[in-house]
Amino acid sequence: MSETLNYWLVIVGILFVLLNIAAFLIWVERRMLALWQDRLGPNRAGPFGLLIILADTLKLFFKEDWIPPFADRHVFVIAPAVIVISVLLSFAIIPFAPAIQIVDLNIGLLFFLGMSSLGVYSIVLGGWASNNKYSLLGALRGASQMISYEVFMGLSLMGVVMLSGSFSLRTIVEAQKDYWFVLLQPVGFVIFFIAGIAETHRLPFDIPEAESELVAGFHSEYSGMKFGMFFIGEYLGITLISSITVALFFGGWLGPAFLPPLAWFAIKTAGFILFFILLRASLPRPRYDQLMEYGWKILLPLTLLNLLVTGGIILFLNQP
Amino acid sequence: MKNFVEIIQSSINDTLGSWIYLLPEISLAFIFILMIIADLFWAKRIKNLVAIIAVSGLFIVFLEVIDQFILIPPQGVVLFSAMIKLSTAAIWYKVLITISGLLVLLFSLRDFQLRNTEKGGSEYYSLVLVVTLGLNFMVMAQNLLMIYLSIEFVSVCSYILAAYLTGNKRSEESGMKYALFGAVASAVMLYGMSLLYGFTGTLDITNQAFYNGLASINLMSASVALLLTLAGLFFKISAFPMQVWVPDVYEGAPTPITAFLSVAPKVAGIALLITFIRAVNSGGSPSGSVFLASTENLLAALAIITMTIGNFSALWQTNVKRLMAYSAIGHSGFILMGVAAYSMTGQKAILFFLFVYALANIGAFLVIGYFSNVFHSEELEDYKGMGMKYPLVSVAMVIFLVSLTGLPPTAGFVGKFFIFSAAIEAYMLGGNVLLLIMVVFGVVNTVVSLFYYFKIPLNLYLRKAKTEISLDKGNLLFSVIIIVLALFTLFLGVFPNKLIGLINF
Amino acid sequence: MTITQSLFYFLAFVAIFSSLLVVTAKNPIHSVLYLILTFFTLTGEYILLNAQFIGIVNIIVYAGAIMVLFLFVIMLLNLNVESEPQKTNLMKFIGIITGGIGLVVLTAALKSTDPSNTVVIQEVDMGLVKNLGQVLFKEFLLPFEIVSILFLSAMVGAVLLARKETK
Lengths: 320, 505, 167
Description:
By secondary structure, chain A is an all-alpha fold. Chain A has helices at 2-36, 52-62, 73-90, 108-129, 133-164, 169-174, 181-184, 186-199, 211-214, 224-249, 261-282, 288-317. Chain A contains 12 helices and no strands. Chain A is globular and about 70 Å long. The model of chain A has no long low-confidence stretch (mean pLDDT 83). Chain B is mainly α. Chain B folds into 2 domains: 21-287, no CATH class; 291-505, no CATH class. In chain B, a hairpin with a 4-residue loop joins strand 1 (77-79) and strand 2 (84-86). The mean pLDDT of chain B is 86. The N and C termini of chain B lie far apart (48 Å). By secondary structure, chain C is an all-alpha fold. Chain C has 2 domains: 1-84, Four Helix Bundle (Hemerythrin (Met), subunit A) (Up-down Bundle), CATH 1.20.120; 123-167. The model of chain C has no long low-confidence stretch (mean pLDDT 82). Chain A binds chain B through residues 165, 314-315, 318-320, and chain B through 1-2, 4-6, 8-9.
């Protein structure tokens, strides 16, 4: 009985923490951006402007939730839910600490790839259902960008799978006891991280929304909490990519014993989240064709090469 | 981890043990990749580089295929955990496919339409090579998965080749129609295969379990599953009821591709059909297979319908390529006659007939291509009076048509004679009256075919040309190939034993 | 009825129902959405058969990639209800007749077969990635390699047909 209860507590706890982190990140991002861009950022409501989170959330909830009359109603409503659901489901396989993981699937990594490949529907359907030319353009861009970057996102992880011999994230973390995989798979890490940015369509890869040319891209027509879902989905996505990176390449919860495992995981993840924000503050947005060219002509061959070399070395070292 | 490495190593060892038997196929794949790279880096500097690689590469492959006759033991070798089987018969089919591939490549070198497409020719040649690869696997396949894959392989490449003349409405339509019909056919086939797998629990059709599984269930269920599976093959060999795509596709596709489609996939399809018939009829029980009578009846009935439809529809055609398309359907019927008799008499007659048919059919299409290079038309109207202007080629055309009709002294006569006698022999041995009816229909159809084939020489020689415009000279390469093919056709008609002696296995 | 069985029937029902909706939906985008739903139910069936790998690959490849491309193409073509070709009543009638005959033949033929034995999975780990990989690279090595050449040639063809020549 207590086992089941424990299990449910973990699930509810993770869900609660994640949603709060997503909201908290709104404040973090604005403050950090301000710091890096030599501005003040939100500093009025509460200490350090922390209450802006509350204010923002309330605003989103009380705004008029408007569905344009020219939109496809059902699809319009489903679209924002898809991204939140798919990202939240992905968190199920992440080992936050030895005891804190919802489920340890033996195909865990593939499950993550599968869920992240579903996230694209949110953009495509949202953009299409809005029945607005800017949204549709954003949707088309989003679809092609995410499909392209998914290819080497999956491939770049296969080096890690080869090294640990498993798709289960727990096994992968445990296999990094001696050294982190980032040392053995630096190319894999860099490519995965770039693909991760593209998958969450964050700056500099936020081409589907590109406010300067597409108004706001796929979510131009959204308002109220439906817009909020896209918003939350984006921050959840950042957290997801950061924590997957930590688990796969930076030893997950492993670290010196003076801090508990969960703290190590949180610190490493926070570092990557900050890096995401720093990227937004410092890099310009590439053109659409540059993005595609970069992906298919540079990243894909590099990924395949990385895979080939990794496999060759493993085969060579294990020769009887 | 160690475990994996061992498995990889053992599978590498397995592959190394059998790669020598797959030399032609491996070479083809290698040449294909080489052609893509060559096209990318050096095509601009060296003209026709890709075509040269294609022709010389396929010639090397041809030699390698010939070499396999010596390489394999008489009973053949089973490779890659019974995925494919390389037997003497399969090598013969591969020879035939490679020869037609070579002829088609030479044909394409000088084809007017292909030389003037905006796409350039390099991908064309690489695709022809890949089709050959798929066809090679088709004749060797003996596992449902391999059968499906190789058929799909051939289909996908053929769709692209048929639509190669982008911008040409006819060619695009042809590719589209081919793809749509092909997709339906392979879906039906896949459904049949899933039933077969469900009934038998094995993908390997030569496995005893396959026959036992089928024989143990209700005959009706087994027949439906088999029939659905065979539908995909019937599509490839353009037999009834999957023949509707033929005229439009043959008319629209580039002429060399029409020549190729009318021969090579048919050869491979027949080879695969024979593998299938053999698997179904190879029951271990002393009383023989339960499917013997039903397959014989089915094939005989299909042969009758196919050739009747093909030959009678051809009577009304005014476009030469369309006429040849219906004639190709008719010939599928004749070949099916041989397949119906197969379980009794073996495949010697079929092989010889296919050889003869390939020579004459590719030859006839070469002449069509030759004329279309000269006056850019494939209408029967425009052939009027050309016999006097291009005497050698026209004489060759007459020889090909005589051979396709099946009259002496050409090889076609011998081929048809073998097929008819095989059918009669099978009737004597098995006593199936339908086989006899089939022979009667065959004779009637031969007479019918005379009417439409001779429309072409009639126009060539006996009608006056409409206008007296001066025309270009024909292409020398074409004339040479055409004449060589015509001489071969005559030679095999007079000395059929030269080839029959070889096909002894 | 065990939980697995009732799950099976539920998934099978949803699969058939949504695939019917794929055909009947007027809006092509909705058709694609129902098709995605069908793929999800199929993934469920795979997992019930203990084939997790196939199940998740079904999501990654079919639901996650191919269907997105479907959507992409449909959006580019801008198909909608009005541009759908209207079939005449005669066509519909013929379609129903032929389809009906096909159904009758199939049921008649397959009705008489014995219901198959309950599938008992001998090896529980059969569908796991490790075992699947071993089978793929031993018994099915040749088809696997052929598929790669097939895809390469299909890719050459697709690029060829789609490419615009600049002169």
